[in-house]
Structures are given as structure tokens and as C-alpha cells.
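# nightly structure sweep
# worker-07 picked up a monomer target from the shared queue
# config: single-sequence mode, recycle default, output format = C-alpha cells
# input follows
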Amino acid sequence: MKRLSLILAFTPLIVFSVLARFLPHGYIGVAGLVAAVAALVAILVSRPIWPPKILNACSLVLFALIAVLGFTLGTHDDRWLATWGGSGVGVILGLLILILIPVMPFTEQFARESVPRDQWSSPTFKKINLVLSAAWGAAIFLLGASRLAAAAINGHTTRRLPETLLGLIVPVVIIIYMLRFSKSYPDRVAHRQPAQAPVGHQGA
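# output follows
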């Protein structure tokens, strides 16, 4: 699959995570709004535009909801949303990806951009996208759990190292690893299936 398309799909989560981390609590609605706009852009530049890709649609709904809550909640609830919602959004998105796998592994929609239609129903194509979607769902869930742990630790210590490690370094490592895994795994599976044409991805 095209790496650029996948990066664009995760841009709303990345943008929201950065803004929620560095903006004051009162701006969590702004962070949600910017992330929702990024999700809408991802939908509009995808081909085909309709139906929208599952990941992009879930991101749009999730961040739009956070934006509405951020702009309408009082100061106390707004602070809670910024602390725990800002950190836990990865957990929610990861669970959504995993739950929707029986309906449609989200990576399959991205893989179809570069894989011939006659290979979409092949066992190899299905296997690759089932594994990739499950791996991404678990990775995003772990990313969110790491940021939740960072938020919890941050409330009980003045030391920055644990919060920086769990809230920034671990999520970055997870994303980089998954991008590399998404690029290499389809090739490894295709090479084990010499009788079939490669069906994973055709370049970044």
C-alpha cells in the first residue's frame, strides 16, 4: 500500500496528540477541531472519496465530538477532557480499528489503491490486510495506553523523564515501527507465495 496515504490517515491523530500535549487545557476544543479538519482533508483527497475509508471516517467523528465537547464543557470538565481525552483517544481509535476488522480491515481499503481488482479476493491479500489491521489496531491502542500512563504519572511527580518517555518517545517508536512493518510485511508474505503475484503493496 502507499505509505503516504497511510501517513495522511493517521495525521489527525498525530496532530491532535501534539496539540493536546502542548496547548493549554482550555484549547482542547481547538485541538479537536484541527484534527477533525485534517480527517476531512484525508477523506477529500482519498480515491474514491465515497464511501470514505473507515479510519478516516472514524477519525472525523471522534475528533469532531472532542471539538464539540471542548467548546461546550465548563472549565473543570474541559481540564478533565484535555488530560484524559487527549491521552486516551489512541485507545478509542485502536479499539475501533480492532472491532471493525470483521467488517473491513482498514488497511484493505488503502491496499486497493495499488493492487489490481482481480487480487482483492485472494487469500494472500486478505491475510496481509487482516494481520496489518490487527497490528495497527493493537499498536494504536498501546500508543494510547502509553499516553494515559504518562498523564497518570504526570499528576504524581514533577520529574519530566517518565512523562516524556511514555507520552512522546514510546508513541513515536511505535508509529515508526508500524510504518516499517506495513512496508515489509506484504513483501515477506508475497515471497512465501511464489505461485501468486505480489498483492501487498507496490512501493511507497
